[in-house]
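Thread: Newbie trying to understand structure tokens

Hi all, I'm a second-year student working on a class project, and my supervisor (Dr. K.) asked me to get a predicted structure for one chain before our next meeting. I've only ever worked with sequences, so writing a 3D structure as a token string is new to me. If someone could post the tokens and maybe explain what I'm looking at, I'd be very grateful. Here's the chain:
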Amino acid sequence: MDRVAGHQRHPKDLAYEEDVCAGHIEGRVDDRARRLLGPAVCQCRWSGATVTEPQPRNDFASFPAPAEGILVAMFITVRKVARSRDFYSRVLGGTVILEENPCTVRLSNSWIIMNPGGPPTPDKPGISVVDYEPGDTTSIFMNLRVADIWACYEEWKAKGAEFVTPPIDRGAEIRCYLRDPDGYLIEVGQSTGLLHGKLAAKRPEDLPG
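---
Reply by user tm_fold:
Sure, no problem. This is what the structure looks like when written as tokens:
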């Protein structure tokens, strides 16, 4: 008799497939099964049930938890975690560290942490985390420094990124802006003249006082 009571073992050519099904029924699926099935659905012949075996991409060893000193990460409030996770990983090329709760994506030398909003908590009494409302003003934005801004622009645009304008040469740097799925503004910049001592022109609001 097989591991699932009342059922005979299937022929050899189907044995492993059925063992996978048994693993689903008993709550255990080994690494070989996960590689075989991926995120697909396993149709268990014995029970007639459809059981999905998720494949979370959790890499706890890469979570931003320094042994000493500090690391800088950025938290953003998102409406749909899966949508934002896809943008920061597939479009911008980040690596998913935790899929959710909170979703964490390593982007080059930093981390983007994202979760839906929520009410006040004991460690931030009276403060709610709310969805970002995009508009014609902003106070804070991510700044991505790149080696080849035109290559990034073409690649990310082809993957669905929505840029405000194409890259513009401003003397000290070439830069442009795009928005993520929740409307957050992201600056993309390539230092050019700045590397040779050419600074951005000062505006009246930049002057002391």
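A couple of things are worth pointing out once you decode it. The chain has four helices and eleven strands. Residues 12-26 form the longest helix (15 residues). Feel free to ask follow-ups in this thread.
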